[in-house]
UniProtKB/TrEMBL annotation:
Mg(2+) binds at residues 53-55, 260, 262-263. PANTHER family: ADP-RIBOSYLGLYCOHYDROLASE, ADP-RIBOSYLHYDROLASE ARH3. Keywords: Hydrolase, Magnesium, Metal-binding. The keyword Hydrolase applies. It comes from Microbacterium protaetiae. Pfam families: ADP_ribosyl_GH. GO terms for molecular function: hydrolase activity; metal ion binding. Binds 2 magnesium ions per subunit. This is ADP-ribosylglycohydrolase family protein.
Length: 310
């Protein structure tokens, strides 16, 4: 990989963390006008200035596994991710309701049991498409950067269904990871390319949703009312990145969208980082980022590089 591509690899994780931390103090709040420039502050749930929330924290165990050169086909690796999530969730400042419901009810902290419980939870209610799977999916794109698109899509779906069973989660995570992969390779945003590997029914489902997000006048505010749903979070984040002039602009747009601001900005940050690169993240932002013991922006960069084998 050349230095520009590696900058995009690092940008994927650092911009995700930055978007997450930036959106923290605006969570559950109203949409903001374009004249307002979001600032880092103390989060709604008590996260400190520059501290990322559960969105990036749940990505960390996935990133660590991939940085070790392991794969997500390895059941033992998935088990370690679930154990780490469960232990982290016990005293985390905030955990998504759907995720907490799965992790707190596990009879044994294994991937097999987590996925089975997620499936039963979905069957009981008929829905399980919260945005908690999409917020943590970016590391999968890095660890599978040199694998086939089908392998990447399958791995993204496998991790999504550890807590979020519904097919919308599987599709959204796969599409997002494939878009990150394409952006790292080319520096371009092209979400449509990922649809080529889907069957006609899935393309018919997602094509109008993507068109809506990429419409010339679209803004994350358009999707704020339901952006706790993975589909609207996907659309809001995509709109933020597609119409941004710079990486900070993408994160500002995501936060101005309102409601689940940290999650939408974290999702947008991962893709924006893959498009623009870590060099476009302001240095003062990098210096304040934290949220997991022993991990700051420098360590995020190191783990990201190791995940792609660099």
């Amino acid at each position: 990989m050349n230095p520009v591509q590696l900058d995009r690899v690092v940008g994927t994780m650092i911009a995700q963390a930055a978007g997450d931390a930036l959106g923290s103090q605006y969570e559950s709040g109203p949409t903001l006008p374009d004249e307002v420039t979001p600032r880092f502050g103390v989060g709604v749930f008590g996260h400190g200035v520059g501290e990322w929330t559960d969105d990036t924290s749940m990505a960390i165990p996935i990133l660590q596994i991939l940085a070790q050169g392991r794969t997500l086909e390895d059941e033992a690796a998935l088990d370690e991710i679930v154990v780490t999530w469960r232990d982290w969730s016990r005293d985390a400042k905030d955990v998504g309701a759907q995720t907490r419901g799965i992790l707190s009810r596990l009879a044994s902290p294994t991937a097999r049991d987590a996925a089975a419980l997620a499936a039963r939870t979905h069957e009981a209610s008929g829905r399980s498409a919260g945005n908690g799977s999409l917020m943590r999916t970016a590391p999968v794109a890095l660890g599978y950067l040199h694998r086939s698109p089908a392998e990447l899509a399958a791995a993204a779906g496998r991790v999504a269904q550890l807590t979020h069973w519904e097919q919308d989660n599987v599709d959204a995570c796969a599409l997002w990871c494939l878009a990150i992969r394409h952006a790292i390779d080319t520096g371009e945003l092209d979400i449509y390319a990922a649809l080529d590997m889907y069957d006609p029914a899935a393309r018919a489902r997602w094509l109008p949703l993507i068109d809506e997000a990429l419409a010339v006048a679209s803004h994350p505010r358009d999707f704020a009312a339901e952006n706790g749903w993975v589909v609207r979070a996907f659309q809001g984040a995509l709109s933020a990145v597609a119409h941004a002039r710079s990486l900070p602009d993408a994160l500002f747009r995501a936060v101005r969208g309102g409601n689940d601001t940290d999650t939408v900005a974290a999702i947008a940050g991962a893709l924006a980082g893959a498009v623009f690169g870590a060099s476009e993240v302001p240095s003062e932002w990098k210096g304040m980022l934290h949220g997991w013991p022993g991990i700051d922006a420098d360590e995020l960069a190191r783990l990201a590089m190791r995940a792609v084998g660099a």
